[in-house]
């Protein structure tokens, strides 16, 4: 019944030199198979070879001993008590049982095994074989306690089954050195958490000193089929406490060599599920096909990123929702949202570029700022708070469903705006709204210019304008309450009308209305009107075809209720009405119907005939160099209706200042036309009446037909008379006089009538400028034409001092020569020719260069003879370029 090493109280046997057991099968039913009692001192090791020791206790040491097992099986526990003993398992030895040896050492070579059946304690453990940690008793607590040093060598294996009911470490040691393999198994069922804050961890090894080594490999035999792809199980030293070696659930993003999954950046969240990542996601070095930087959201569920310190790269949302309270959680790269997927953000600055067919949803009550050059096409939803975009391009395309506040700085916003929210125009830039919008929360213009390019662009709701509002769409804008604050401007472009519940123009505000396409209807209709500031009207000449014989009254504003206020100032085309001398204009509330604000206007030409408050005169002063006024009315002699004290003759017209006056009526005034400054455009064939045209500035004949100037035209030095393409001139019996220093500018082509100018006589001087667009289209000199510019009743006197061609991309080998017809001195001819044959009266100097571009050709059929050379050409050399 086992081996008992004892002295039996005899001093003769107080020490034993050793014990050797070979090829023995030692069994004890109720005691130790090998027992060294406390009185026995073993001077040499106990050697067990090719043997089997079986019993409740395989070895019991009441005194220190060294036991060396070689190819030996120990079926039972090892009890070394408090002795300082040593047990080594070698040469395929095995131990099935527990060890109790707080001060003892246990060593396993690479061929040996320990199947631990119950919690055990040793002083030092060195393992190069296999240890299976078991707990047949089912007790809680640590399975293996190493009082001093645990050393796991390269060939070692630790096998353990995890008990979820036991929260204690499976191994405790004072010092730990790790190597070899760790094989774990568990029957627990994985339950996916809703946040990484709830990820579990289990301490496998608890050391009193830092663990600086690791297993070569870790395996886990467990059912992880329910574990989503974004989670993995990791084994390693606790990053927060390096004295612990843990088994933990973590993000696959940071998976390492001892994780159940390779590292990757995909988060697949199934429909109906939500997962929140509170951990910081940074770029990492991955050993898989993943780049360690890109986050991919898949599945129809919701992934929430809550860490604003995230520093990863691109984001791809392939399905469901990727949500973040702060846009900083999205890392630094581009964001791609596939169709039907959603990016949901609450606040912060989204400076990433966003692409794809999906949508952005703004949630919460805070402000979200988008700054990227975004092309996402799934639209934008604002459920609350403020969405701010300095540039409209940051809002992608698609409908913007707004239940909060949308702030936009500048650009072209073609998106359709819907919902109960409001729009705020910010910044000093220009924002154009082109969508067919239905949003109802109103519009605020804090600064800059807001252009409404669609009659529905402003949706519904009130408009509060502290900048510039331009209504620029032909048709009627239907709005609620429109307020133009002090210092702000509201503008109605041509063809635009406005229907509002109320219109308020505060003091020092401006209302600009372009009446160029007025159709007789009021420009503004309203339930109520409050007026102040400045009214500036342009295009007033278009409100009626004729301004005679009486003043024309136009209802500019039609209100359903009485208008009890007025504008402080009235300007016309940016000029104070007092400075618009050619019109007598008044704007006021109609005394007979105080729901109307009327413009009463008439030409000052007819002031005496109409018994106007101002004196009649024929002066048209336009001070704005960029301004123009079109007189479509017929101007006739009114000398018989003049006030006797008038200083005007009632039949002459004078153009003053730098602007442009356009005459487009059927005029027959007889006193002549004087152009002192600026430009006068004759836009009808009878625009110039019947008197002399005395031109000291610029006269443009642009009627697409024959302009009648039967009183003659004199162009003084420094002045220009221009015939536009398609326009000819009939002077009747009168003269064309071009003084020295003047300019006659003629635009012609092969379709121009000949002669362009007819009259009684012509006196020529100054410059002739010819623009012939057809010259560049000639294929041969056989196609050259001579144009009869003038055909007078008498011989032409004088001549132009220079001829200049004003041709765009003209061929250098072509020119125009101007000359009085030597065969008929009453004619002035313009003849196309080769620059080779140019003379002193040609537009270009003579030369021998022919420049033709790729694909161009030109045939010279005439004889090229030697010519008199000049400083740039010898008169006899031809150069092809």
Automatic annotation (TrEMBL):
Gene3D superfamilies: 2.160.20.20. Transmembrane segments: none annotated. The keyword Magnesium does not apply. The keyword Transmembrane helix does not apply. Keywords: Signal. Pfam families: PATR. InterPro entries: Autotransporter_adhesion, Autotransporter_pectin_lyase_C, Autotrns_rpt, Pectin_lyase_fold/virulence. It comes from the Bacteria. PANTHER family: C-TERMINAL REGION OF AIDA-LIKE PROTEIN (PTHR35037). This is AIDA autotransporter-like protein.
């Amino acid at each position: 019944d086992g081996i008992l090493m004892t002295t039996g109280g005899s001093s003769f046997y107080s020490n034993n030199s050793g014990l050797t057991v070979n090829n023995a099968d030692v069994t004890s039913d109720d005691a130790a198979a090998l027992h060294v009692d406390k009185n026995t001192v073993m001077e040499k090791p106990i050697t067990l070879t090719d043997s089997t020791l079986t019993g409740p206790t395989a070895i019991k040491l009441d005194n220190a001993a060294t036991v060396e097992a070689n190819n030996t099986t120990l079926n039972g526990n090892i009890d070394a008590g408090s002795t300082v003993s040593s047990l080594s398992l070698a040469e395929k030895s095995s131990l099935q049982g527990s060890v109790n040896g707080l001060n003892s050492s246990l060593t396993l070579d690479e061929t040996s095994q320990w199947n631990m059946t119950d919690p055990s304690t040793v002083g030092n453990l060195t393992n190069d074989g296999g240890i299976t940690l078991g707990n047949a008793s089912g007790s809680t607590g640590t399975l293996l306690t190493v009082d001093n040093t645990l050393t796991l060598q390269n060939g070692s294996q630790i096998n353990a089954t995890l008990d979820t009911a036991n929260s204690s470490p499976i191994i405790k040691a004072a010092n730990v050195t790790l190597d070899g393999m760790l094989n774990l198994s568990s029957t627990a069922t994985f339950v996916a958490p809703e946040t990484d804050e709830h990820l579990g961890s289990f301490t496998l090894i608890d050391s009193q000193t830092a663990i600086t080594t690791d297993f070569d490999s870790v395996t886990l035999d467990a059912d992880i089929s329910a574990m989503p792809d974004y989670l993995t199980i990791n084994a390693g030293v606790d990053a927060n406490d390096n004295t612990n070696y843990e088994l933990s659930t973590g993000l696959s993003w940071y998976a390492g060599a001892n994780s159940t999954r390779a590292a990757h950046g995909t988060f697949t969240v199934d429909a109906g599920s939500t997962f929140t990542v509170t951990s910081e996601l940074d770029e990492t070095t991955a050993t898989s096909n993943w780049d360690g930087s890109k986050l991919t959201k898949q599945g129809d569920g919701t992934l929430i990123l809550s860490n604003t310190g995230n520093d990863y790269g691109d984001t791809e949302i392939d399905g469901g929702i990727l949500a973040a309270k702060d846009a900083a959680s999205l890392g630094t790269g581009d964001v791609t949202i596939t169709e039907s997927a959603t990016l949901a953000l609450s606040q912060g600055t989204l400076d990433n570029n966003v692409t794809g067919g999906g949508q952005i949803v703004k949630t919460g009550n805070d402000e979200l700022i988008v700054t990227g050059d975004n092309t996402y096409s799934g639209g934008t939803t604002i459920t609350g708070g403020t969405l701010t975009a300095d540039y409209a391009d940051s809002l992608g395309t698609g409908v913007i469903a707004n239940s909060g506040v949308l702030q936009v700085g500048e650009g072209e916003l073609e998106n359709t705006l819907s919902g109960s929210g409001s729009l705020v125009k910010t910044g000093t830039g220009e924002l154009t709204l082109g969508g067919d919008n239905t949003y109802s929360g109103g519009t605020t213009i804090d600064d800059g210019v807001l252009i409404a390019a669609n009659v529905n662009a402003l949706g519904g709701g009130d408009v509060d304008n502290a900048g510039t509002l331009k209504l620029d769409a032909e048709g009627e804008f239907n709005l609620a309450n429109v307020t133009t604050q002090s210092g702000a401007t509201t503008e109605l472009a041509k063809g635009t009308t406005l229907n509002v519940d109320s219109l308020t123009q505060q003091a020092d505000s401006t209302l600009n209305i372009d009446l160029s396409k007025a159709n007789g209807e009021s420009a503004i209709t309203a339930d109520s009107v409050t007026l102040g500031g400045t009214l500036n009207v342009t295009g007033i000449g278009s409100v009626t075809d004729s301004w005679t014989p009486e003043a024309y009254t136009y209802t500019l504003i039609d209100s359903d209720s009485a208008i009890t206020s007025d504008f402080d100032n009235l300007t016309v085309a940016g000029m104070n009405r007092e400075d618009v001398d050619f019109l007598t204009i008044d704007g006021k509330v109609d005394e007979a119907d105080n729901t109307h604000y009327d413009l009463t206007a008439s030409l000052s030409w007819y002031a005496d005939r109409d018994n106007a408050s101002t004196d009649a005169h024929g002066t048209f002063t336009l001070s704005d160099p960029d301004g123009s006024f079109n007189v479509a009315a017929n101007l006739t002699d009114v000398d018989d209706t003049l006030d006797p004290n008038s200083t005007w003759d009632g039949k002459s017209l004078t153009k003053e200042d730098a602007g442009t006056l356009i005459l487009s009526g059927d005029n027959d005034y007889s006193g002549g036309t004087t152009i002192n400054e600026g430009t006068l455009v004759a836009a009808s064939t009878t625009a110039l009446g019947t008197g002399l045209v005395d031109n000291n500035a610029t006269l443009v004949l642009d009627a697409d037909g024959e302009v009648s100037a039967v009183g003659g035209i004199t162009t003084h030095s420094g002045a220009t008379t221009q015939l536009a393409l398609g326009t000819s001139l009939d002077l009747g019996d009168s003269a064309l006089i071009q003084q020295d220093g003047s300019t006659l500018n003629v635009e012609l082509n092969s379709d121009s009538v000949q002669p362009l100018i007819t009259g009684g006589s012509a006196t020529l001087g100054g410059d002739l400028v010819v623009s012939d667009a057809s010259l560049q289209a000639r294929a041969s000199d056989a196609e050259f034409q001579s144009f009869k510019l003038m055909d007078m009743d008498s011989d032409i006197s004088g001549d132009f001092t220079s001829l200049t061609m004003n041709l765009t991309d003209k061929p250098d080998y072509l020119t125009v020569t101007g000359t009085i017809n030597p065969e008929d001195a009453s004619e002035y001819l313009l003849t196309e020719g080769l620059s080779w044959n140019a003379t002193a009266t040609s537009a270009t100097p003579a030369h021998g260069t022919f420049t033709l571009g790729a694909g161009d050709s030109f045939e010279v059929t005439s004889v090229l003879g030697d010519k008199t050379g000049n400083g740039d050409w010898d008169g006899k050399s031809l150069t092809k370029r």
